[in-house]
Write a structure and sequence with these properties.
By secondary structure, the chain is mainly α. It has a two-stranded antiparallel sheet with strand order 1-2. The chain has one domain. Helices cover 74% and strands 3% of the residues.
């Protein structure tokens, strides 16, 4: 897979774009809110798609050396794992409370008012 064809490279770009669009826009599972989060997910999807065939196997439709369905599974897996990892790092940076990441400073203000 190191020396891939141009068609396989474009297919990986398309599969990474598809996975990042579905996760970022439709499911709204985001690591960053803007364009930088979308591009980071796209890069993670491309890398996941590139690793998809060696990890998930060689089956179904293929374009050159790229098997499409394992690459699509890898693209979704790569985008999801990078997003989940960065969200977990954000939770630990905020003190280990998942609600602090979701609601921001409002949760801290409400905590001070209640105590």
């Amino acid at each position: 897979m190191i020396g891939m064809s141009f068609a396989a490279f474009l297919m990986l770009l398309g599969l990474g774009l598809l996975s990042s669009f579905v996760l970022h826009m439709l499911v709204r599972y985001r690591m960053f809110a803007g364009l930088d989060g979308f591009l980071c997910m796209w890069i993670a999807g491309w890398i996941g798609g590139w690793l998809g065939s060696p990890v998930f196997g060689h089956w179904a439709i293929h374009v050159g050396n790229l098997y499409v369905i394992p690459a699509l599974l890898g693209a979704f897996t790569g985008s999801f794992l990078v997003t989940a990892g960065l969200r977990a790092l954000a939770v630990t940076a905020k003190g280990g409370r998942p609600d602090a990441v979701a609601s921001g400073a409002a949760a801290q203000v409400e905590m001070r008012k209640a105590s």
